[in-house]
Amino acid sequence: MDTDALTAGVLKELRAPHPAPVLSLTMPTHRRAPENAQDAVRLRNLVTEAANRLDADPRISREDAAATKRQLDLAVSELDPRRALDALVLFAGPDEHRIWSLPRTVPERVVLADTYLTRNLVAAKAQARPYWVLTVAADHATLWSGTPDALRPEKTGGFPLTAPREDPNPQREERIGDTPSTFTDEETRTFFRTVDEKLRGVLAADPRPLYLVGLAPALSLLDDVGESTAAAVGRVAKGAPADLSPSRLAAELRPALDAQTVEAAAGVRARLDTARGGKLFAGGLDEVWSAVQEGRVALLAVEEHFRRSARTTGGHVELVPEDEAVTAGDPDVYEDFVDELAEAALDSGAEVVFTVDGALSQYDGIAAALRY
Length: 372
Known about the structure:
- This protein is α+β, with helices and mostly antiparallel strands.
- The chain is 39% helix and 23% strand.
- Strands 5, 6, 7, 8, 9 and 10 form a 6-stranded mixed sheet that branches.
- A hairpin with a 2-residue loop joins β6 and β7 (150-153).
- α2 (37-56) runs antiparallel to α3 and α4 crosses α10.
- The chain is globular, with a radius of gyration of 24 Å.
- The model is unreliable at 172-180 (pLDDT under 50).
């Protein structure tokens, strides 16, 4: 799965406790040759380590260990190297397996716990900045799921939608004196009300920035009949044929996406400046971690490629020197501390955003605006 498939419902499932430990396997991957040649070897080594850990763990029955190993083997057999991004996350239990490809690197780990290790997924989704695109015409509407790496039509919430076809009615046309305009007849208005209703449901279940693509009369009608367009952060007044390709749509969207990125970055800077002025600001890992633990963070801003290994001692954060080996299983040491922090912040209701590298250099790559 891709990170845009990590809805609140899926995350709740992954965090649900299991009666016996389940397996999480994470490793960095490579998108292109020749670097990706090493991925298969590293994966085989991690699978072997995982199998040994399953057999040795006294909390796991022999039957559950064997079933989990079968699920892990199935997951490996389903991998498509052509779809590799920057990281691979595999989850396996006695009755299931799940595969995630992430556009954000992760440490190499094998973890056995009563829940799956989700912090890498949560941080990757926050960094990926997923968004929705609605392409709409008089007789069809398609919902697209987008990230910086992919754009694809989504079958969710009732989408795609097609207007019911009706035979022409010459008598009706005679009564009104002309063929009605496509975007003023009642059938089209009814169809657009349905589009609005379905879109509101999608946005309620999985809130994301929304972009609208369609002819100007179509977008105007959608504004007129419903409420969902109030959430739109960008509009592209271009035709949206039913056979619109992802590559063409991506090209049409690019100016709107770039404009929103600039606007969002400016908004983050303004919020941090306001927080500093009001003494509601934290900068650096230690200050931010303390504020996250206290549930005081409203906005967490992290540079895109900021990653640190750290240990927590007495409620404070101590960076692990780069030349110091991290001991697997040490509960106070995090190889991926930034991902841990991002997940904790999101769990407390904070907004997490990733900025361009260097934007937060005066705060060592991480800063937060506080609630109080």
